[in-house]
Design brief:
Two copies of one chain form a homodimer. By secondary structure, chain A is of the alpha+beta class. Chain A has a single domain (12-103), classed as Winged helix-like DNA-binding domain superfamily/Winged helix DNA-binding domain (Arc Repressor Mutant, subunit A), CATH 1.10.10.10. Chain A is 52% helix and 15% strand. The first copy, chain A, has five helices and four strands, in the order E-E-H-H-H-E-E-H-H. Chain A has helices at 22-34, 37-44, 48-61, 83-103, 106-114, and strands at residues 6-14, 17-20, 67-69, 79-81. In chain A, the strands form two sheets. Chain A has a two-stranded antiparallel sheet with strand order 1-2. Chain A has a two-stranded antiparallel ribbon with strand order 3-4. In chain A, helix 1 (22-34) packs across helix 2 (37-44) and helix 2 packs across helix 3 (48-61). Chains A and B meet through strand 1, strand 2, helix 3, helix 4 and helix 5 of A and strand 1, strand 2, helix 3, helix 4 and helix 5 of B. Strand 1 of chain A pairs antiparallel with strand 1 (6-14) of chain B, so a sheet runs across the interface.
Chain lengths: 125, 125
């Protein structure tokens, strides 16, 4: 049982901000599942503040908001992924799948063949 | 003048270690250019120790060493990228180019069209 040998991180930039990337996509999934930013943050092991900031960046980088919140008690009320957000997320997942498939060609095969299954022990003292 | 809208990071894992990724590939290029780990580290704005550790990981993750060092004074003598290392680097760059090309399809076009050129101002207080 070894971890996946190839990891591809796709980041979409809006100016200097990351409009969409692996962490933000997972956060959208978690918000869709749990219906609030605080519950999504908890599931992902991140602070409410960090999750809120990621949502804020996403909502400022696209033509429409990806997440809508409803006012509530401490740490916000409910939150949901908008239809627009759902479309963006689906296209990002498509892009991940497309690149995951595209990656497994000749260059990757050569690299895989040249790599060890596990690192050798370090020589460092 | 805006930064590239799409950034793809490809990481190849050997067990739990990253055998090759954007930073390690750039370090190999710098070692090839400068002929020593310390000069390469300086160019990249990283400590000698960090560069040495990255080289150590690379040399432990592949069937042959990617970098060879020759003993010298403080902070090592010379270093060079081996023929094997050069091949691994070239295949990694090929993989980057292949995915860069593959990325610019339908999903990316839809995402680009839905993204703003610059983020809107934050609402946060």
């Amino acid at each position: 049982m070894e971890p996946p040998a190839l990891k591809i991180r796709i980041q979409l930039y809006c100016g200097a901000e990351i409009a969409m990337g692996p962490g933000k996509a997972d956060l959208l999934d978690a918000i869709a599942d749990h219906g609030s930013i605080s519950a999504a943050a908890r599931t992902m092991g991140m602070s409410y503040r960090r999750a809120w900031l990621l949502v804020d960046v996403m909502n400022r980088c696209w033509q429409n908001p990806l997440v809508e919140t409803t006012p509530g008690s401490a740490h916000g009320g409910g939150a949901r992924v908008t239809a627009f957000g759902d479309t963006v997320l689906r296209q990002y997942r498509n892009l991940q799948n497309e690149l995951g498939t595209a990656a497994h060609g000749k260059s990757y095969s050569s690299l895989s063949a040249a790599m060890l299954d596990e690192p050798k022990a370090s020589q460092k003292k």
